[in-house]
Design a protein that fits this description.
Number of helices: 5
Order of helices and strands: HHHHH
Number of domains: 1
Largest sheet: none
Structural class: mainly alpha
Radius of gyration: 14 Å
Number of strands: 0
Length: about 120
Amino acid sequence: MNIVAIVTGILLALAFAFAALPKLTKQDQMVQNADHLGFSTVQFQLIGAAELAGAVGVVVGMLSSDLDAVGIAAAAGLVVVGIGAAVTHLKAGDPPKAAAPSLVLAAVAVLHIIATAAA
């Protein structure tokens, strides 16, 4: 595994785990965000579960070159989550800067896929 794959993997795991936990624990701000974006609390928890699963999958993929496919699949799922989040924010009428973090993380996930596949 190369340094780009390691750095992007750590960034993805931390960012998506920290994004998932408030959703999974139904923190007040996340409940308000879910409502604003048109999701139920349960739907938002499922998004949090997908984020956490992706974070765990990226870490698992980094444990051994035999598990690269797991990390690549997890990162691909996080690309979908990131793009979906950006589109959802824009459809809700949020300014483009609200969608930017999701798109940046989706780009980091793409970079992780490329770096992992190249290793």
